[in-house]
Each structure stands twice: as structure tokens, then as C-alpha cells.
Amino acid sequence: MVRDITIGQYYPAESRIHRLDPRVKIVCTLFFLISLFIQNSLLGYVVATIFLGAVIHLSKVPLKYIVKGLKPVVILLLFTVAMNLFLTRGGETLVHFWIFTITESGLRTSVFMAVRLMYLVAGSSIMTFTTTPNSLTDGIEKLLHPLNKVHVPVHEVAMMMSIALRFIPILLEETDKIMKAQMARGADFESGNLIQRAKAMIPILVPLFVSAFRRANDLAMAMEARCYHGGEGRTKMKPLKYHGRDRAAYLVTILYVVIIFVVGRFVPFKLWIF
Fold this sequence. Notes:
Distance between the termini: 35 Å
Structural class: mainly alpha
Number of helices: 10
Strand order of the largest sheet: 1-2
Shape: flat
Radius of gyration: 23 Å
């Protein structure tokens, strides 16, 4: 289960998406996430599906990695679907049982919310799969650079985000090792009620926190020993520069946003309740 969490992992490959400037991938990901909320029609989600499928194909990231990244949000997904399905009222009543009522509006909203949540996770995963933590730090720092004028510590914020993202796979691997070690000693994490399972997690959490603090301290001492300082005056081995493919990616993303807005808002199309 722990191995199924793919947040923060980088998938090395030679693809057009990998070669894009990290600033382009961050901005285009934000545009894609926003596009999911500016429309609310079946045709709009069809356009979003085609765009996301094309990006996944160009990134050369296996589809199973994208699907694996959706597993940690299954509980949140089911909860969101259930809340919208049973609590949203409007339109004709489709099913009524005891205190539960499913209406056309509730079914429509729950399906669209489920698709929207899955696309949010998948779109964000593509960015982390195709961008190294160092590139992500440089991209965030460049995009937030204007905030330096109002004394926002942009470099420190970007570095903390990058370190946190880099530590996620490491801590997940550490958790998996600790769980296997505890299970070899006879620990049981599957049986019992919720309280018993929570108590069984204590032998995992304690060594995990100790390991995390030790890693953080080692990293801080290593950076301090190398006289690390970021921000103004620091040169970069690979400075970020826009190329033709980056401008093309911006144009394609802007065109996609315009199309999905027009199609999702102004093109009349209805299939049953959708």
C-alpha cells in the first residue's frame, strides 16, 4: 500500500514533456487545473480527457504509474461522490430508499466531481513525474521572483517545497522497511477495529519520526558545512532559458483553455442527465 503512493517521485525518460522548462510545466499544470473548474459539461470533460491523454502519451510515463497515483485518494474520492450523490437535490428523483434519495442533479454532480478529482491528481502527477526536484525549485523560484520586491523569502520557500517533495519517496520507502521489520517480529496491522489498528501504528510512527529528524539534521549540517546560501548572488549550473518548444507549449495550453471554456459553456450538448 505504501509503495502505491507516487507523490513526489520522478520518472526518468526522454520525452518532449521532460525537456520542457519547469516554469512551463508549472504554469501549464495550473492552467489545466483551472480549466477543470471553468466548465461543467460532458463535452468539456471530453476535451480535458483528450488533452490529458495526449500529455500522458507525450511524457512516456506508463499509464499504470498514473493509475497507481490515484489509489491514495480513493477514500477521499468515494467520500466526495457519496456526499454529492445523496446530499445534492435538484431535478427528477431517480432512486429513493429509506432516508437516501438520488436525484438527477446529485448523480450529475457526483460523477463530474469524481472525474475532476481524478484529473486533478493525474495532471499534478505528470508534473512531478517529469520534473526533477532541483528543476522544480528553480522554476518556482523564477516564477515567484517578483515577490522579492515585497521581501518575501522566495528562495527559501522554493527550497523548502523542493526538499519536502524530495523527502516524500524517501520517507515512504523508510515506512515500508519499518512495516516489514515489524511484521517479521509478529506485528499485525490488518486485524482489529480502528482503535486497535491506530495503536498498532505506534511502532511504525516512532522510528519513522526519529529517522526523519535524523535525515533532516544530516541535510542541514551538510548544507551548512558547504557554506550554502541561496538567493541573490548565487549562480546556477543550468540557468533556465525559454526555447521554441516552451513557447509552443504555452500556445497549445492557452488554446486548450479557450476551447474547453467555449465548448463547456456555450456549445449545447446533452446526453441523458449529463
